[in-house]
Amino acid sequence: MKQVITAFVAMTCFFIAIADQGNAQPGPGGVSVGFNNASHTAVVVKGYTIVQGMQRPGQLLPMKKNGKAFEPNVPTGIRFYTIYDPITQRPLLKDHPVPIRDRDVFINIITSPLDPQRVVIVVLPQQP
What we know:
Blueprint: H1 2-18, E1 31-37, E2 43-51, E3 54-57, E4 61-63, E5 68-74, E6 77-84, E7 91-100, E8 105-111, E9 119-123
Parallel strand pairs: 1-8
Antiparallel strand pairs: 1-5, 2-3, 2-4, 2-6, 6-7, 8-9
């Protein structure tokens, strides 16, 4: 009987060790999105998410060349980002969709390799 109990305890410990712990849940406000401006110029980033049929806008994020900015409390879902030139206020990238899940996201803004007058968003992979 002692061997059965020992085996049962060992199997229980094994299953607890290999069980998926899951991801931490975001706070009540949402997740954070970080930006790194690796483009050739200063930019302004504006984002919004559609929540219950209405746009929930974020704050304007001005960034110098090689600058960083963070947008806190972003709701989960598809976030649309528009990147503007701060001087001419011309959109360099309009309504680019970025999926926001249950983890913080970090985004690089780089100059487009095909058109130097445009920028591209590169979403960095998240660590497990």
